[in-house]
Amino acid sequence: MFASLRKNVLTTFLFLVVSFSESFGQTPALIPVATENNLMLLGTDKQNRLRIVYFGAKPAKENDYSKIAAQYFINDNNAGIYNAAYTTAGTYNLVEPALQVKHYDGNLSLDLKYKSFTTNKNPDDGQTITVLLQDEVYPVQVKLFYRTWPKENVVEQWAEVSHTESDSIILSKYASANLYFVAEKFILTHFHGTWAKEMQPVETELSAGIMSLDSKLGTRANLYQSQNFMVSFDKVATETEGKVLIGSLGWTGNFKIDFEIDSWNNLRLIAGINPYASAYTLAPSKIFRTPSLVYTYSEKGTGIASRNLHHWAIEHRIADGKGTRLSLLNNWEATYFDFDEPKLKDLFKDAKNLGVDLFLLDDGWFANKYPRNGDNAGLGDWQENKKKLPNGIGYLVREAEKAGVKFGIWVEPEMINPKSELYETHKDWVLRQNERPEIYFRNQLVLDLSNPEVQQFVYSVLDSMFYKNPNLSFIKWDCNAVIYNAHSMYLQKSGLPQSHLYVEYVRGLYSVLEKLRKKYPSIPMMLCSGGGGRADYEALRYFTEFWPSDNTDPLERIYMQWNYSYFFPALVSCNHVTDWGKQPIKFKTDVAMMGKLGFDIVVSKLNEKDAQFAKSAVTTYNSIKETIWRGDLYRIENPYKKPTAVLFYVSKSKNHGVLFSYLTTERYGNTSSRPSRLAGLDPAKDYQVKEINLYPGANSPFKTTVYSGDYLMTIGINPRLSGSRKSVVLEILEI
Ligand code: DGJ
User: Residues 337-370: pLDDT tens digits?
Assistant: First the structure.
């Protein structure tokens, strides 16, 4: 009987693990965390514990909220309380905890009871709901924060733990968010990979037990696993159909996200800093604040969910989300470490000829005793190399300006080569184990950012560069090594536990970035990490953009950028045209335009037509970039499912659209034989469809034609892809 009842209620996606009448108090607290379309309902039970009563689509009437719980009759005595809003350890709960503590006296128990909640309106939009929970035996309290952005259907969730015990307590696990979902099935899409293969998707149906996504790398998480994920409910969500949660943990270090299927086949999600080697000692009256989990939920597929996240990010999170971005010419793959002033001055001219905004000088410009002529020396010694740059950065900035472009520079300030003067003077600043052999990643080690002196050093590397060169216009902040032999001399000397290192490293990094952003609020900064090692919404508070991967083969990039696009708007995705891949420059440039366009090629070596094309592509890009950066993205044809990839960007006012289409296979007979149905246009408007970004001399089969929005969304348009037209860009303009 129970089984059939459960089936019925599950289909409505409403669920409560305990019987309302049995376990909920007479006047239970009911706390709605609501956005325009969604509702998470928190409620107290008879023992006054806080649970997740409901998560899903929002019923139209608020009056109905109090009736939701009564629909469910399920006993959960066998393993504790599955739907706790912040699961503790050591008392009633026997499943994966969100919070695990050791009290000052060694006791391991915790049982949080609901005390109160407050709701505060946020100045920009939405509200922050704060729920206070307390243990009744030990003076430990937790505040749960739920910040809502109603219009974008985004919730940001974090927690604060504090106590007034007579001595410090140890936090063994301290999650940011604990969620609970009900459905027939849960399909997790997560993204793993390695260098040049970042963001590879894996789709997995969750089965009984726990699956965890985590990183223990210290830095560069994407070298192994991303903290960005999606969960489909009941069946795999498509772009336009199905229930899906898109989540992203804002933490630029070790993380752990647990997906536990409980006895009733429901999903418990616990996300936060990775507790691995990170037990945290919390002194009385101090507050431990977790990072936040950002998520959005849709019952209409991944398209709307990611558009919501994009708009939230642009409006509320990304550094200078509403500002412009600079197109650029980078010299990394064009010169590697081999350059000097005359060579760079030629490249400034190339940048100007190309029409980009900025020249970006990459790795190799610094260090004298151990010059940075390869990746085995110099990191840490941030003085211009006198042989390569006798006149310093200031001269380069001026020369670039004379040539008509801005100047930006690469740094990797968290890192050190053992072959450096910094290492000779400050071995104590390096994360290493004195008694063990050093282990290098790309011949380098990581500086100890838990140390305030090191934080000051990293800050001053940038600060003095800006002080000396106020016209410096762009920073590429790289981070190539993971943390081996994780050990901090600073923590040791200060009598602080080594298990604070992973947490304090990231906090140290944020405090440097915070200070830099205060003094230099508008400088564009690219987050790079040995390719696409770091991409998260906490780092993006400080960075205007990120580098998704060193792999710029445009075919690979179609897939990679597709995957990143579930989480991040095109505005932040730095895409460069390089020598990777065998495709013609037209194909490479089309792919790179779906984001922030850059080049890393020897422009002077381009043949005449390629050079002509690249130049006119920059002009074209400037005329369409606003729609790409801040418009609505519709992923129309999925390259994982078809031999084509089609992506459509539409401006907010629906008066302009750009369609990018690619043939992703070499196999015989694959063409775009059918039209691609567009989306996001106004059915009542008329649009002119025109092929743009054509290679010089190429004939387009498109006669510029006018179609109604209705036609384009009902019948569609065929980009006419074929073996000789493997990438086609169409502009759709309201007339
Ligand atoms: C790794 C980055 O991903 C590259 O773009 C380049 O900046 C190199 N580091 C420089 O060492």
Answer: 999 999 999 999 999 999 999 999 999 999 999 9
Q: What is the CATH number of domain 632-734?
A: 2.60.40.1180
pLDDT tens for residues 39-87?
999 999 989 999 999 999 999 999 999 999 877 655 666 667 899 999 9
CB of 450 closer than 8 Å to CB of 488: yes
Neighbours of 5 (CB within 10 A): 12
Q: Quick check: 13 pLDDT over 60?
A: no
Q: Which of 264, 209, 299 is nearest to 6 (CA)?
A: 264
DSSP-derived secondary structure for 15-31: --SS-HHHHS-SS--EE
Strands 186-192 and 200-205: antiparallel
- Which residues does a 6 A CB cutoff place in the pocket of ligand 1? 332, 362-363, 410, 478, 480, 528, 530-531, 547, 550
Q: What is the pLDDT of residues 216-256, one digit of tens each?
A: 999 999 999 999 999 999 999 999 999 999 999 999 999 99
Give the pair of three-digit tokens for residue 714. Answer: 């009902």
pLDDT of 191 over the 80 cut: yes
According to the CATH classification, is domain 2-306 in 2.70.98.60?
Answer: yes
Query: 708: buried, middle or exposed (CB in 10 Å: 19+, 13-18, 0-12)?
Result: middle
Q: Which two tokens stand for residue 486?
A: 């994780």
Closest to 573 (Cα-Cα) out of 545, 600, 549, 550: 545
CB of 572 closer than 8 Å to CB of 708: no
CA of 251 to the centre of ligand 1 (A): 22
Helix (H) or strand (E) holding 459: helix 452-468
Return the ligand 1 atom nearest residue 600 CA: 5
Longest dimension (CA), the chain: 84
Residue nearest to atom 9 of ligand 1 (CA): 530
Cα separation, 308 vs 566, in Å, equals: 10
Is pLDDT above 70 for 259?
Answer: yes
For 445-506, strand residue ranges (E) read 445-446, 474-477
Check if CATH label 3.30.750.24 holds for domain 328-365+390-409+457-630: no
Cβ-contact 546, 598 below 8 angstroms:
no
Q: Domain segments of the chain: what residues?
A: 2-306, 328-365+390-409+457-630, 632-734
Nearest to 297 by CA among 154, 179, 150: 154
Quick one: how far is CA 428 from the chain centroid? Answer: 32
Q: Is the pLDDT of residue 294 over 80?
A: yes
**Atom 10 of ligand 1: nearest residue by CA position:** 363
From CA 712, how far away is CA 678, in angstroms rounded? Answer: 6
